[in-house]
Amino acid sequence: MKRAWVAAAAALVLAVLALVASFPGGRADLSSPEDTAFLWDGLYLGKQTFADVPYVSTPYEVVHEMIRMADVRADDVVYDLGCGDGRLVIEAARLTGCRGVGVDIDGELIALCRSRAKAAGVDERTRFVTQDFFETDVREATVMLIYLLPEINLRLRPKFLREMKPGSRVVSHVFDMGDWRPDARSLVGWRSVYLWVIPANVTGDWSWAPAEEPGQSHTLRIRQDFQRIRGELIRAGGRIGISAPRLSGDRITFHVVQDVGGVPVRTQYEGVVEGNTITGTVVSGSGVRAVRWHAVRDPSTAGRIDEGPRISELSRD
Ligand SMILES: C[S@@+](CC[C@H](N)C(=O)[O-])C[C@H]1O[C@@H](n2cnc3c(N)ncnc32)[C@H](O)[C@@H]1O
C-alpha cells in the first residue's frame, strides 16, 4: 500500500515537471549545463523536448546503488533508455570498464551526454543515440538501467523480456514493473531501486530418456509466470509435482520425491536452458553420483511468460 502511494506521488512529481518544462520560453541552453537552473539535485526546469517522460536526473547516490544492484562488470553492455545527461551509462563505464549505450529523444541532451562522456574519459566505450526508445533494439544489452514512469515501464516490459538474454539485469529507479515481481529491492532514502533478472522461457513440455529406466520417457510440464515456475513430471508411474522449482536467468533447479517401496527417494535436477534444450545433471537418492540430464522441449508447447495464467492458477495435480 505504502509502495503504491510512493509510486503515485513520484508519478505526480514527474507529471508536474513535464507540465512546467512544456511552458513556452522556458528553455535554457544545455550546451553549458553549469549555467542551467536546478531547484534541487536532479530537477531540471530548463530547455527540454520529451515524448513520454520529462527529464529528471537520478541523484548520484542512487546511480551508484543501481550499478551495485545490477552487479555491472567490465564485460557488460549497459543501456539507459531515456538517458538524460548520460550519468547512469557514464558512471557505469567509468567505475567498471563496461561498454554503454544511452538513448534519448532529446538531441541536445544527447550532445551533452557525448561531451560529458569525453570529459569522463569513457567516450570510446560509450555511445549516445537520439531515438525514441520504443524503437531501440536492446538485444545486446546485458544490463538495463532506467528511470521512467510506471506505465512506460509496463510498455517496455515485453520488449525487455523478448529481446534481452536470460540472466541480463534490469534495474529501475523508483518505479516497478507491475505484476512482474522484482528479484531484489533496496532503498536509498525514500527512493526504491528494483532489480529483475531476465528469466529464460521454460514453458511447455520437456522430454528425456532417464538413464536408470531404459526405454522409458520422462516429460516435465512447466508453467511459468515471469521468473516463477511450477511443474509436474509425467512418467509411466503417473504424474508427480516438482518441489522447490527455481529459475534464475537460464538456470533451473527442482527436485522430485518418489515413493520407492515405502521409502521416499529424492531426485535433484539442475540445468542450463538454451532455447529448446536443458543440459545439466540429475542426482538421485544418496547423491553420490551425478548423471547427465539432457531434456528437449517440443517447441509447439512453448508459451509466453508475461501473459499466461497467474502462478496462483497453476494446477498442482
Ligand atoms: C526521468 S529522465 C531520466 C534521465 C536519466 N536516465 C537519469 O536517470 O538520470 C527520462 C528521460 O527520458 C527521455 N525520454 C522521454 N521519452 C522518451 C522516448 N520516447 N524516447 C527516448 N527518450 C525519451 C527524456 O528526454 C528524459 O531525458
Structural account:
By secondary structure, this protein is α+β, with helices and mostly antiparallel strands. It folds into 2 domains: 2-197, 3-Layer(aba) Sandwich (Rossmann fold); 204-313, Lipocalin (Beta Barrel), CATH 2.40.128. The protein has helices at residues 2-21, 60-69, 87-96, 107-119, 150-163; strands spanning 77-81, 99-104, 126-130, 143-146, 169-173, 184-188, 191-197, 204-208, 218-225, 228-235, 238-241, 243-248, 251-260, 263-274, 277-284, 290-297. The strands form 2 sheets. Strands 11-10-9-8-16-15-14-13-12 form a 9-stranded antiparallel beta sheet, with no helix packed on it. A 7-stranded mixed beta sheet has the order 3-2-1-4-5-7-6, covered by helices on one side. α2 (60-69) crosses α3 (87-96). The protein is elongated. Residues 17-50 have low confidence and may be disordered.
At a glance:
This protein is of the alpha+beta class. The protein is built from five helices and 16 strands.
Going by CATH, the homologous superfamily of the largest domain would be: Vaccinia Virus protein VP39
Order of helices and strands: HHEHEHEEHEEEEEEEEEEEE
What is the name of the CATH architecture of the largest domain? Answer: 3-Layer(aba) Sandwich
Helical percentage? 10-25%
Largest sheet: 9 strands, antiparallel
Average pLDDT: 86
> For the terminal residues, how far apart are their CA atoms?
34 Å
CATH class of the largest domain: Alpha Beta
Task: Give the domain tally.
Answer: 2
Distinct small-molecule ligands in the complex: S-adenosylmethionine
Strand order of the largest sheet: 11-10-9-8-16-15-14-13-12
Number of E strands? 16
Q: Sum up the overall morphology in one term.
A: elongated
Whole-angstrom Rg: 24 Å
Low-confidence spans: 17-50
